[in-house]
Amino acid sequence: MIEMSISACSVIFVVVFFYLSVFSFTNIHAHHCSEKFLSEAKQRNLINITFCKKYVESNGVEIAMYLREKSRRLDIMVGAMLEEQTGWLAWGLNPGPVARMVGTQALIGIKTRNGDLLKDKYNITSYTKIGCQLLPSPIDLNISNFNFSYINYLQYHVIQATIILPMKYDVSRLNHVWQLGIDVAVGKEQPMMHPKGLRNYDSTETINLRTGKGRGNRVHTSSRIREVHGILNIIGWGTLLPIGVIIARNFRGFPLPWLPNWEKYHISCQTVGYIVGATGWAVGIWLGKASKYYSFPKHATFGTCIFAFATIQIVQMVFFNFKPGNHEEIRMYRRMFHHVVGYSLLVVSCINILKGIKIMHLDETYWLPAYYGIGGCLAFIFIVFEIVSWFKFLCDKFKLWMDPVSRLHTK
Ligand code: HEM
Ligand code: HEM
After folding, report:
1. Residue 124: closest CA among 181, 58, 198, 172
2. DSSP assignment letter at 188
């Protein structure tokens, strides 16, 4: 038993090391804005740039600001690529205690289907969040020189404006919010819902215009934890659990008794997979609670179902399977339940891992091919064993195996 736990530990160590090297952390911090954007901003009256940043992880939006503190005059320029036929770019200030969508006093530029560029002011309320039309409305900022244009050599659509900041906006804690959307209501100055991923939800920041420094509300604090959450879930539910299933199905004597102690290996894999996966799930719950203003309900529901059913499997295994009752029929149903839940867990885990990868937009990185590689290898091993098993089963059933003696007789 001790030997087995040592080998299980070394397997886990290798798996964890492998994952940490494959899914090594990416740098998600906002960068200084690009040279071209900076020089364009300087040409456009933002002479002494107070703040200039490119939000690489947030649709690559670039924002430059110039504050004249005495007069509380703030010049802003916000640029982004609107790649689709229609699109909109928004930027605004939130006078509330946190940088968030609801309460933002926004300037929005819209690119319509026929190529017109429209612009207006919008007060974003909680009604917007629940899906009511977002139409132009008065805002509590004094705005001048507001325009929305296209800069050909940058391929950027750009919002530019001058704002006289009311006293309730603290220049050392200024909440700014930006957003990019694709859909626009036909014939109206009405931007429609933006995409629902972290790239669009992490688009808020509280900045200190005196020091020129910004502190992202979520990106900087929790993106590493998000990756840890992803890695733990991929190891637990996405790797160890399927390996345990392959051991139970194909190593217990059919097609070959390769692992005499298959049951112990199966239990070790499932227990460790459960502990790692459950830790990943708990981190996910923590992340969900930490990001108060948005959520991923489907991912959360699937995740919690995976955790709940995996817990039932473990409890069932520990408290019932080892103390079989006298009733064979009940044992049979229990075994059927264990199998059905086990296979369903694998499928739902796969779906949820892909959902998680999509939420974080990691589907455009090496994460997706890496996960497909792992899943593909496990699926390949599973399928090969299945084919061998069925081949052996059919040969046994139709007595297709012939030893040399019977072959002599048939001749
Ligand atoms: C066009 C109409 C819009 C609709 C229907 C809409 C709807 C939503 C919804 C449903 C969420 C996620 C809520 C959740 O998961 O609980 C959200 C989040 C967010 N939206 Fe919008 N939105 C719109 C426009 C805007 C605009 C113009 C901005 C920027 C000025 C913006 C910035 C944000 C941000 C930063 C978040 C992350 C959560 C937060 O900070 O509150 N949205 N939006
Ligand atoms: C089967 C595996 C997984 C389970 C059981 C799971 C579970 C969860 C749960 C319960 C939440 C909380 C959701 C909420 O309350 O809104 C969550 C959030 C999240 N998960 Fe997963 N997850 C899994 C896989 C992944 C993967 C593979 C990734 C990415 C590579 C990922 C990325 C995220 C992100 C980015 C969040 C939101 C964090 C935030 O709100 O800031 N998940 N997950």
Report:
1. 181
2. S
Would you place residue 25 in the very low, low, confident or very high pLDDT band (cuts 50, 70, 90)?
very low
Which ligand number lies closest to the CA of residue 231?
2
State pLDDT tens for residues 108-129: 999 999 889 999 999 999 999 9
Q: What is the pTM of this model?
A: 0.83
Whether the CB-CB separation of 65 and 75 falls below 8 Å is answered with yes
Q: For ligand 2, atom 13, which residue shows the shortest CA distance? A: 300
Contacts of 23 (CB under 8 A, 6+ apart): 227, 230, 231, 234, 367, 370
Residue-wise over 186-208: b if at least 16 C-beta within 10 A, else e? eeebbbeebeebbbbbbbbbbbb
Residue 244 alpha carbon to ligand 2 centre in Å: 23
Instruction: Please state the atom number of ligand 2 nearest to the C-alpha of residue 352.
Output: 1
**pLDDT interval class at 331 (50, 70, 90):** confident
Within 10 angstroms of residue 246's Cβ, the number of other Cβ atoms is 18
Best residue among 223, 287, 293, 344 to mutate for probing ligand 2's pocket (most ligand atoms within 8 Å of CB) is 287
Q: What residues does each domain of the chain span?
A: 32-217, 220-397
Percent residues over pLDDT 70 in the chain: 84
The neighbour count for residue 339, using CB atoms within 10 Å, is: 13
What is the CATH code for 32-217? Answer: 2.60.40.1210
Which atom, in ligand 2's list, is nearest to the CA of 237?
A: 1
Considering all CA atoms of the chain, what is the largest pairwise distance in Å, rounded to the nearest integer? Answer: 108
- The CB of 291 under 6 Å from ligand 2? The reply is yes
Fold designation for 220-397: Four Helix Bundle (Hemerythrin (Met), subunit A) (1.20.120)
Tell me the per-residue pLDDT of 65-84, one tens digit each, with 9 for 90 and over: 999 999 999 999 999 999 99
How far does residue 299's CA lie from ligand 2's centre (Å)? 6
